[in-house]
């Protein structure tokens, strides 16, 4: 089932999400719905707070970016051809490498894209969809998507990384999003 995406301005996007237990009600169905919602809205990642759940879950599929790359971009990132993964109860253990810039967007903040600096590598401790534990290091585009989605379960948004002047310039657009004055081709729910 395709779920509505929570828009910028909603309180849940600023909340630190909670770990869940293996007996979380309807977990498999929730994960299926998250994948379906992410793909139907042309996203490469989706965190539970974006579908109005304050739990530490996100899904991501960096292969989507590589599939739609221009020919001259091929071979530019070390994580090609990308990965598809579910992260439950994720906790970042460390960052490594140089910070690098990439133009990010967010389903909860439609039609706004900005360059954001993030570290090249991230090491994450997480559970997969079967509640099997993993500690893995990711790099490239995959690391960036993981950091972006991880921010969601920590109550942060990519616009928090922007300089104050840039955020001030976006204020009008952000206000319009929070008031529902935006047209997108996927279902959204706006703050009351």
Describe the structure.
The chain has helices at 27-40, 63-67, 140-153, 164-178; strands spanning 5-6, 45-47, 57-61, 84-106, 109-127, 133-139, 188-189. The chain is of the alpha+beta class. The protein has a single domain, classed as Peptide deformylase (Peptide Deformylase, Alpha-Beta Complex). The strands form 2 sheets. Strands 2-3-4-5-6 form a 5-stranded antiparallel sheet, with helices on both faces. A two-stranded parallel sheet has the order 1-7. The protein starts with a strand and ends with a strand.
Short description:
The chain has 192 residues and is of the alpha+beta class. It is built from four helices and seven strands. Helix content is 25%, strand content 32%.
Structure keywords:
single chain, 192 residues, alpha+beta, Peptide Deformylase, 5-stranded antiparallel sheet, 32% strand
